[in-house]
Amino acid sequence: MEAAVSAHGISAEKHNEMLKFGWWLYIASEVMLFASMIGVMVLAKSKYESPEYNIPLLSLNTFLLLMSSWMVVRALASVQEGDQVALARALFIAGLLGTTFITLQIVEYTELSHHGLTLTSSMYGSVFYMLTGFHGFHVFLGVLWLFGNFFRALKGHFTPDKAIGIEVMGLYWHFVDVVWIVLFTLIYLM
Amino acid sequence: MAAIEKHRDDVHDTSHVHHGPKKPTYNLVFAVLTVLTLLELAASGLPGVLAILVLIVLMTAKASLVCAYYMHLKYDPPLYTWVFVVPIIMAVAVILSLQGLAGY
Questions:
Q1: B29 within 8 A of B67, measured Cβ to Cβ
Q2: pLDDT in 10s for each residue of chain A, 190 residues
Q3: What domains are defined for chain A?
Q4: Which of A186, A171, A166 is nearest to A62 (CA)?
């Protein structure tokens, strides 16, 4: 069987592998970016008293993000099985879960600011909002991507042999999930 | 990219084969992640250093599961794993160095 050829004159499979490798390089750069901020956060925690966090709310947020990652891998499995309805449904639910995560993060910020933790109240506040806000911004971009792919899925853009758009979006979304797993433990539980 | 080429020759007979886990595996991983999160919440009540150690183990287990099964590192060429793991090692070194510089 003749392999599909992309617009750049290389096989579709080769193109997909290069795209995935590029995304892994991007994720590697993000690891270092988050590491620098997490390092300063750990330092701030050792110097300042941590505020009283709303752990039930944050646990719910953790669960929402884990569930959204689950929906994204189910979306990938669905497109590989050729199930367009399940694909669109999973992407929509994942987008809703991401949106809820951001909403609850705003609720958390509001609570903390009422308890005196603001961006300018201390070094702890500055680092806390910078780190969690930077992660939240990544979630926001991920939600836009999820809903973008949802609308593309409705138009039948993805097929079992054309699922790379879902796969690389998944890489990004799961990385955002991994960062939250680390933040949830290091900032809120320790 | 040579490692990717070799792996592709090994595991892909045609361009239509999708390697990686299926839905039941994804469901199981999600269930395990949920249980590990509940264990984390319980472990946060442990005394002092013990809590920190248990939490770090659970956090690492959760992150590893997501990377291995959801990000397909268990199924993709080892090169991807190295691209991810090397910066993580450097990241841990950066975080520990910062603590050292601050005198902790």
A1: no
A2: 445 566 667 788 888 889 999 999 999 999 999 998 999 998 898 888 888 899 999 999 999 999 999 999 999 999 999 999 999 999 999 999 999 999 999 999 999 999 999 999 999 999 999 999 999 999 999 999 999 999 999 999 999 989 999 999 999 999 999 999 999 999 999 8
A3: 12-189 (1.20.120.80)
A4: A186
CB contact under 8 A, B18 and A163: yes
Place of tokens 């002092």: B48
Residue of B8, B67, B80 for testing the chain A interface, max A β-carbons within 10 Å: B80
Query: Which residues of chain A neighbour B40 with C-beta distances below 8 Å?
Result: 184-185, 189
DSSP conformation letters of B49-92: HHHHHHHHHHHHHHHHHIIIIIS-TTTS-HHHHHHHHHHHHHHH
Do A35 and B90 lie within an 8 Å CB cutoff?
Answer: yes
Chain A residue with CA closest to B44: the answer is A189
A32 touches chain B (CB under 8 A): yes
Q: Name the minimum distance, in Å, from the CA of A54 to any CA of chain B.
A: 13
